[in-house]
Amino acid sequence: MGERLTRLLDSPANRAAYTHSPAPVLVWEAAPRERTSPELLWVTNPKIRIDRPSNDPLVYRVEKSSKQNAFGLGITLGRAANNDIVVDDPSVSRFHAYLQLDNQSHVWHLVDAESSTGTFVGASRLAPRRPAPLADRSMFTVGHVELRFLTPDSFESFIRTWSAVTPPRGS
């Protein structure tokens, strides 16, 4: 699961782990509020939304997780708990897409994994199993979830901008 940006900012060590890591991040700015009871979704349902967005984005580190995920072609993204990046939204397929780093060009690519609702970079729908390059700060959509791809430097800039326009908690 992703980490709430406010929790990340509350811990200097946690913040440093994100901003001083070579791994990029994904930011879900319109992430829903946290649910009190987890519910398992067995089917992709593009017609419903879990909850209204909170003002606290979710941040995902783009790296292989410590979970037992044998997928070797990249970093998996989907609704199921065994993905490297778990996006808890009913419009996202259990295994929706994956991200790959080209070791020669150092360019990240996004690949749709034959998802039900599609993967889009900007307005362009990706063809299944065809890598599409991701530029720093680019937006892409999985199901109805819009994610921003940020390098560590851009993420630090995002944090400064977000902190400047977001009122402190408790006010």
What is the gist of this entry?
With 171 residues, the chain is an alpha+beta fold. The chain has three helices and twelve strands; from the N terminus they run E-H-H-E-E-E-E-E-E-E-E-E-E-E-H.
Report the sheet with the most strands, covering strand number, pairing sense and barrel closure: 7 strands, antiparallel
User: In one word, what is the shape?
Assistant: globular
Tell me roughly what share of residues is in helical segments.
Answer: 10-25%
Strand content: 25-35%
Radius of gyration equals: 16 Å
What number is the mean pLDDT?
Answer: 85
What pattern of helices and strands is seen along the backbone?
Answer: EHHEEEEEEEEEEEH
Number of helices: 3
Number of β-strand runs: 12
**Strand line-up in the sheet with most strands:** 1-3-2-12-11-8-9
Q: What structural class results from the helix and strand content?
A: alpha+beta
End-to-end distance: 28 Å
| Unreliable runs | none
